[in-house]
Amino acid sequence: MSRQVYISGKLVPAEQATVSVFDHGLLYGDGVFEGLRSYGRKVFRLAEHVERLFDSARAIRLEIPLSPEAMAKAINETVAANGIDDGYIRTVVTRGAGTLGLDPNRCSDPQVIIIADSIRLYPKEFYDNGLELITSSVIRNHPAALSPRIKSLNYLNNILAKIEGLKAGCVEALMLNHKGEVAECTGDNIFLVKHGQLSTPPLDAGILEGVTRNAVLELARDARIPTSERPLTKHDVYVADECFLTGTAAEVVPVVKVDDRIIGSGKPGPITKDLTDRFHEMVRR
Ligand code: PMP
């Protein structure tokens, strides 16, 4: 069965799923997207992802030519049409084809694209033994320039930090905000554990409100782990007992070294492991 991609309101074979070279999504990164996961054919936190997609679109004054309900239905249909059980879904909404100028009012037809794929995981070793990070010299976008709350098609800020991480042999990189506080990683949110307390940067640190972040905060509260969303510094990271990242693709992944400093015992910690187990249970509920 050839892969089916949703575009312009219908499912078509992947080779026929094309957009115009005049699409401002391509010309200017003018658009928004979501990354979702399905577990056993069921999309995890579908409503939350659809809401964030519509919020991102609203923030850039892009009108999505579908209702949230129709979007959720189209995502489910794309997963089903591709026979995906455990998979990754990418939803993209572009500003549409326009002229060569910036003016979004000259774009006529926003494109809604949904791709369902099998998931390519980080190697198991990262989950068993933990990741190493560096702190990138690239600061996260200033919220007054381009809010990190918007999951836009312009990911250059994150890509530049990712390149720096990869050059240093790290698959993820820590990004600070314009105040020098910890923000997030290039495609993941960050959590610390110190003296049994879980903490993660607040939304106003200039981060994406991760769906996985929110799920892990819920799990921590259920597990009666004291939790706070508060400004964190690099110092807090270096002296943490445990550190882990969350994201749709990565799920929950431990971090054991940052800027060549060993975090905690240098091994994934007990609270990280407990929350990882709870997360795996939650996604299949
Ligand atoms: N921060 C950034 C910058 C991201 O792109 C993502 C998504 N890949 C996340 C955090 C994690 O968000 P979620 O848990 O919703 O995937």
Unreliable stretches, pLDDT < 50, 5 or more residues? none
CATH-assigned fold name of the largest domain:
D-amino Acid Aminotransferase, Chain A, domain 2
CATH architecture type of the largest domain: Alpha-Beta Barrel
Q: Strand tally, please?
A: 15
Top-tier CATH class of the largest domain: Alpha Beta
Distance between the termini: 29 Å
Strand coverage percent: 25-35%
Percent of residues in helices comes to 25-40%
Estimated structural class? alpha+beta
Multimer state: single chain
Distinct ligand kinds: 4'-deoxy-4'-aminopyridoxal-5'-phosphate
Please trace the helix and strand order, writing H or E for each element. Answer: EEHEEHHEEHEHEEEEHEHEEEH
Mean pLDDT across all residues, rounded?
A: 97
Q: Total helix count? A: 8
User: How many independent structural domains?
Assistant: 2
Structural shape: globular
CATH H level of the largest domain: which superfamily? Answer: D-amino Acid Aminotransferase, subunit A, domain 2
- State the major sheet: 9 strands, mixed
Radius of gyration, taken over Cα atoms and rounded to an integer in Å: 19 Å
